Amino acid sequence: xxxxxxxxxxxxxxxxxxxxxxxxxxxxxxALERVKKMYxxxxxxxxxxxxxxxxxSAAYVSHISHISAFALSLAVLEKEKNEKRxxxxxxxxxxxxxxxxxxxxxxxxxxxxxxxxxxxxVLDTYIEKLGQFRRAIREKDHGKLTELIHESNKIxxxx
Length: 159
Fold this sequence. Notes:
By secondary structure, this protein is mainly alpha-helical. Helices cover 61% and strands 6% of the residues.
């Protein structure tokens, strides 16, 4: 999402991605079947979700990632104003973490606005988790820090 327009085209972009259909009961069965076949032609997996579940899930797995990247980029850019060599240390991990900060405001401001209830819910949860890391680091609680990291490592079994 950090690139746009024809030059950002990626071959086989949709292979093995998920297409979500909400409120399928409001669509004509023939239209649904046509759309499903179109997605399957693109090698996509089709799933059905309630709109609420879609919006909550999108806030957790997409929107917060962008906000995190925007915020981290702002923090680093602010620090870079005073200490010019910070970005000299940046490497692959930093680049992949802030990649989403290249995304356009024209796309993301409306997304955050339209899904604001869930985005705020996710932000509260995320800030709470950041607070847990902050406390563990401040209190030099290596056990808690290890526990938080190990708990977060469970994501590797899912993705």
